[in-house]
Amino acid sequence: MANYVERVIELCKQKNPGEVEFHQTVEEVLLSLAPVMDAHPEYEEVALLERLTEPERGVTFRVVWVDD
Prior knowledge:
Elements: H1 2-15, H2 20-39, H3 42-45, H4 48-52
Helix pairs in contact: 1-2
C-alpha cells in the first residue's frame, strides 16, 4: 500500500509542477496517512488520496455591465 501513497505523490508532482510548497505538504500528509492506507485497502479502490490532493482552484473573470 505504500506504493499507492508513493504513486499519488508522484502523480501530484506531475500534475502540479512548480508548486514546491504544495508538493512538500502533500508528501508530509500522505506519508503520515500510509499506515491508515495499509489498514484500509478499500480507500485505494475509491481513489481517496487522489481526491484529497486535488488543489482548490479559484477562477476570476470580469463581466462588463451594459445598461439596456
